[in-house]
Amino acid sequence: MDARRSAGVPPAVVGASRPRFGTVTIRHRGRLPHSELDAGVYFVTFRLADSLPAQVLAQFRSERQSILATAAQHGRELSADEKQRIAKLFSSKIERHLDAGAGSCVLARPPIARSVMYAIRHLDASRYQLLAWCVMPNHVHVVLRLFPGQELAGVINSWKSFTAKQINRILGRSGPCGAVSTTII
After folding, report:
1. Which residues pair with residue 46 across a beta bridge?
2. Which of 12, 14, 53, 163 has the most neighbouring CB atoms within 10 Å?
3. Tens digits of per-residue pLDDT, 104-159?
4. Quick check: is 138 in a domain?
5. What is the C-alpha separation between 99 and 28, in angstroms, rounded?
6. Shared-domain flag, residues 58 and 40
């Protein structure tokens, strides 16, 4: 090897093994399909049921339904552009309303925020690797890497079920606390 023409490190071995990234599963939960990658990294947002004004939800549903109806009318799957438009409905419009602090904002109360934190951290290192999280007054953001064989829906359901029960217990009430969760790979 000519040292004058070397980067100082040996070249990669031809035919070296490539990392296996896992299997992608498409889940249809009555809405748009969600892609889940075995051992994938996800950004998740879940929120309180009262965190979005009714008119915002109605507008979101109407716009989403219009896009879905157009694709169905033409007898085809959603295009990449249509999927992106629906994703943008949540990512920009809905997030803007969540960040404005609508609703009861009970997650700002320290005992409630601690119960949410406990729920998120409880399964860290057993079902997923927790990378980052933030409890906001009316919603929660989490970044996690699922361990192989774990399903995102199950993880989110466990968080929402536990936190709804804890919030109701702390507030001395019953009924729904969380309503929506969104996943972004």
Report:
1. 140, 181
2. 163
3. 999 999 999 999 999 999 999 999 999 999 999 999 999 999 998 898 889 998 99
4. yes
5. 28
6. no
23 vs 32: which has the higher pLDDT: 23
Spatial contact of 175 and 168, defined as CB atoms under 8 Å apart: yes
Answer yes or no: do 81 and 116 share one domain.
Answer: no
Q: What is the distance, to the nearest Å, from the Cα of residue 84 to the centroid of all Cα atoms in its chain?
A: 16
- State residue 25 phi and psi, 5-degree precision: -115, 135
The CATH number of residue 170's host domain is 3.30.70.1290
Please name the helix (run of DSSP H) or strand (run of DSSP E) that holds residue 87, with its range, or none.
helix 80-88
Average pLDDT, the chain: 79
- 25 part of a folded domain: no
Domain-embedded: residue 24: no
Q: Give the DSSP per-residue string, 93-124.
A: IIHHHHHTT-S--GGGSHHHHHHHHHHHHHTB
User: Looking at the predicted structure, is the pLDDT value of residue 35 above 70?
Assistant: no
Enumerate residues 6+ apart whose C-beta is below 8 A from 70: 82
Q: Decide if pLDDT at 16 tops 50.
A: no
Give yes or no: residues 57 and 43 share one domain: no
Q: How many CB atoms lie within 10 A of CB 156?
A: 19
**Measured distance CA(101)–CA(40) in Å, rounded:** 30
